[in-house]
């Protein structure tokens, strides 16, 4: 494969995407190389536009092209009901399920001794600020039931006890040891509907 | 997911890549969106450069940044020994195995009644021209042992009988019903070494 710098580089970079091993990276590269104008250039352009446009919502931590994000800015959403999720992938999963009519707080991770994530590494202060400013009625803890997720929910629950706010957690439906964003929409809906006080 | 045109478009286009379902497309998009400058823009640039640079070798059908391709242009390769493969992915697999020191002919498909691929749809005339021009000693048929691969090898064998050229096919090592580019390097090496007259 010598003397093909551009092709090798494409395969290498595609292979670094999550979910793409070396073999699927080669297949993807070939599919793109076979249709440079119909497939590769549109994807490249979409990436450049997204890279230019995307920003992190300073209110909730969501990724969007506006700050505040479309969810935070939507007057139809209930900003008195805040759902705490680990990452944007979980937020997307809940939005696809279409069951949460409130807003979000995206932590950007969970407490983990192993990976060295402590409370200061979580994007959680904006939530405390929002609650302190008033208007937040309920916080739903929608974290996975891994050890890290449970630890984080426990810590958050303690921190939130200082505020006059109802705290619930998604209950029924999240399998033990499971991540949130692999669940089907029905399970996510059940988990949200069956939330209970934390 | 409304109001996020750039992000939705990125997920949609990524999801059209072979090997990426909706879920892995979302994961890949998130990984890129989290590091727009470190990951997304370099990949976009690599795609644009590859799209600009890539061309199909008019001699063998390989994809490369030069025409003739690096393999056809390499004086160290034996251009008297031509290996016929279905597609560029198979060529890449054989190059990774490093067992073929000759050149290639990339058919761009196999004969298939189902998908309507006939002899005129195969990139095979350049092979006949190369043989007619003299200098080709042996043609190795390195197609998969699917029905289509076997049909194509049979047809090619008949067509090549008109020429004064030895025809062999990869034998030992290619599993029945198997595609070529999923094989490990050792199996590919065995298949090439154990080739027999067709
Ligand atoms: Zn937001
Ligand atoms: Zn070539």
Describe this structure in words.
- Chains A, B: A zinc finger (C4-type) spans 57-72.
- Chains A, B: Keywords: DNA damage, DNA recombination, DNA repair, Metal-binding, Zinc, Zinc-finger.
- Two copies of one chain form a homodimer.
- Chain A folds into two domains: 4-53, Helicase, Ruva Protein, domain 3 (Orthogonal Bundle), CATH 1.10.8.420; 63-197, Dna Topoisomerase Vi A Subunit, Chain: A, domain 2.
- Helices cover 44% and strands 14% of the residues of chain A.
- The first copy, chain A, has eight helices and seven strands.
- In chain A, the strands form two sheets. In chain A, strands 4-3-5-6-7 form a five-stranded mixed sheet. In chain A, strands 1-2 form a two-stranded antiparallel sheet.
- The longest helix of chain A has 18 residues, at 36-53.
- Chains A and B meet through helix 1, helix 2, helix 3, strand 2 and helix 5 of A and helix 1, helix 2, helix 3, strand 2 and helix 5 of B.
- One zinc ion (ZN) binds at residues 57, 59-60, 62, 68-69, 71-72 of chain B.
């Amino acid at each position: 494969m010598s003397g093909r710098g551009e092709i090798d580089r494409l395969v290498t970079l595609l292979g670094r995407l999550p979910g793409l091993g070396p073999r699927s990276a080669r297949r993807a590269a070939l599919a793109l190389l076979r249709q440079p104008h119909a497939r590769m250039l549109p994807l490249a352009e979409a990436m450049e536009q997204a890279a230019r446009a995307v920003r992190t919502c300073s209110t909730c931590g969501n990724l969007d092209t506006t700050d505040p994000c479309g969810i935070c800015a939507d007057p139809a959403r209930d900003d008195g009901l805040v759902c705490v999720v680990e990452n944007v992938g979980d937020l997307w999963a809940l939005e696809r399920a279409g069951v949460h009519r409130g807003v979000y707080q995206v932590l950007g991770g969970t407490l983990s001794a192993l990976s060295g994530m402590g409370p200061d590494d979580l994007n959680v202060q904006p939530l405390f600020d929002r609650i302190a400013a008033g208007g937040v009625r309920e916080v739903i803890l929608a974290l996975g039931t891994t050890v890290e997720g449970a630890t984080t929910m426990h810590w958050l629950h303690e921190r939130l006890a200082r505020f006059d706010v109802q705290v619930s957690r998604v209950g029924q439906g999240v399998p033990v040891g499971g991540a949130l964003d692999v669940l089907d929409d029905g399970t996510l809906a059940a988990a949200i509907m069956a939330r209970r006080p934390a």
